[in-house]
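queue> pop job 88
queue> type: inverse folding (structure -> sequence)
queue> payload:
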């Protein structure tokens, strides 16, 4: 009996006319159950029975739906696994055309299979990590050249597909493969265009080799860790307008033998490290770059016969370190750079046979040249030291020329500049036309005064307020004056 049928029968029973009472019925009326109780029990039983049937049907429907979904998911997974196996097989084929098909098949699978997208990306990156022989020389057979060119086309297709999936298109706020990890450890890049890409996961270029020009123009590294440790750049690399926000970016022990540009790049928070990196011949430029709050380290780096430029760069807060950095030959410039509230250190740095220009504004914060060794040309032309503290404690002025400045304004405004235990043993150090305004420049407790610095005429006899010179009866010599 269905629920509606039971309900109809019950209602019909209620509405039917009552039979005429018989004497026998009257005699037993006192012991029988009332009619409304019987009807109520019947109605309740019908309702419960109908509800049981209804909910049973619902459970059965849910079970069937779940079973169908599981079957569809199982079938989808099986098909995706088959696609993966086919793409991987093509990627390992001897023919370049088949490998190209495998690259595109794997990229399409990554788009469709979100759950295993990282696996697909890992396989593409692994292909780039495979051994890559150099370009055959002119004596090689034509077939060898063709095979190399075909292999190169496959590799560049992998790079192009990855980068296309890391670029924001149209009204989208993120790229489709953004937020995943990319491992290019030991890969060889003979070119490649990473411009306008967005990396928000871990990116590893450790020990990678860039044998040709590579473009990272306007790339974004946000959060996560990015490593170029021990990478070798023998071609030009452009990071112009790149953005590094949070996380850690490392070029530790990297080798640069061609030009590297970070023009107008921005570094916000996080840490950027070039510890023990080697720069030879080619220029390294941070022209108009901006560093905010984070930490930047060139500790132990070596610059040989190249150039380093921070022309117009801005350092706001944070720390910049050149501890034990060696500048051998070449040119280094901080002309028009601005350090505001930053902690900048050149502790133990060596400036040998190089031209260094520190015509920057050092405002508040701390700047340290403690134990630095000057044996080349160092110019503080147009430098301004305003507030904060600048120290040359234990610095050695061995040979060459150091100017504070020669015929151009160098200003010491407020703050303190110290040369505690500095050694003036051979360099021509000049403070010619330097201005001391409300600051304290302390040169009175030096370790060596063999070749004293040069001041304007009359300054030694009547030093301006705030300029503290060593007494001649203590050192046996006095500061010099220009001829």
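queue> result:
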């Amino acid at each position: 009996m269905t629920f509606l049928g039971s309900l109809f029968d019950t209602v019909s029973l209620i509405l039917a006319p009552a039979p005429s009472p018989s004497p026998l019925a009257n005699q037993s009326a006192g012991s029988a159950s009332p009619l409304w109780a019987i009807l109520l029990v019947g109605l309740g039983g019908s309702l419960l029975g109908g509800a049981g049937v209804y909910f049973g049907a619902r459970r059965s429907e849910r079970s069937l739906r779940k079973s169908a979904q599981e079957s569809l998911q199982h079938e989808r997974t099986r098909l995706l696994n088959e696609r993966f196996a086919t793409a991987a097989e093509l990627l390992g084929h001897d023919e370049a055309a088949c490998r190209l098909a495998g690259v595109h098949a794997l990229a399409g699978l990554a788009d469709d299979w979100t759950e295993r997208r990282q696996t697909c990306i890992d396989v593409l990156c692994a292909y780039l990590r495979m051994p890559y022989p150099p370009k055959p020389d002119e004596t090689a057979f034509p077939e060898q050249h063709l095979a190399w060119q075909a292999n190169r086309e496959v590799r560049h297709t992998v790079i192009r597909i990855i980068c296309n999936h890391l670029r924001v298109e149209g009204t989208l706020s993120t790229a489709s493969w953004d937020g995943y990890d990319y491992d290019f450890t030991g890969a060889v890049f003979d070119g490649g265009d990473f411009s306008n890409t967005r990396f928000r996961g871990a990116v590893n270029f450790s020990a990678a080799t860039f044998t040709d020009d590579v473009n990272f123009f306007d790339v974004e590294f946000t959060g996560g860790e990015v490593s170029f440790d021990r990478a070798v750049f023998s071609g030009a690399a452009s990071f112009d307008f790149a953005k590094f926000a949070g996380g850690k970016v490392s070029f530790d022990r990297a080798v640069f033998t061609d030009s590297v540009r970070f023009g107008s790049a921005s570094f916000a928070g996080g840490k950027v490290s070039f510890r023990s990196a080697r720069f030879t011949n080619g220029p390294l430029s941070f022209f108009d770059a901006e560093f905010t709050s984070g930490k930047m380290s060139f500790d132990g780096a070596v610059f040989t016969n190249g150039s380093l430029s921070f022309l117009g760069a801005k350092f706001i807060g944070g720390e910049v370190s050149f501890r034990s950095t060696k500048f051998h030959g070449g040119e280094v410039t901080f002309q028009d750079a601005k350090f505001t509230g930053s902690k900048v250190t050149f502790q133990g740095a060596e400036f040998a046979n190089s031209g260094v220009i520190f015509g920057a504004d050092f405002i508040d914060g701390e700047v340290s040249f403690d134990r630095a060794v000057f044996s080349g040309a160092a110019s503080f032309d147009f430098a301004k030291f305003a507030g904060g503290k600048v120290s040359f404690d234990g610095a050695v002025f061995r040979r060459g020329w150091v100017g504070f400045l020669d015929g151009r304004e160098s200003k010491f405004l407020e703050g303190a500049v110290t040369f505690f235990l500095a050694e003036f043993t051979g360099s021509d150090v000049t403070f010619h036309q330097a201005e001391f305004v409300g600051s304290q420049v302390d040169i009175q407790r030096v370790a060596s005064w063999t070749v004293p610095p040069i001041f304007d005429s009359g300054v030694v006899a009547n030093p301006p307020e705030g300029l503290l010179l060593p007494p001649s009866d203590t050192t046996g010599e006095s500061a010099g004056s220009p001829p």
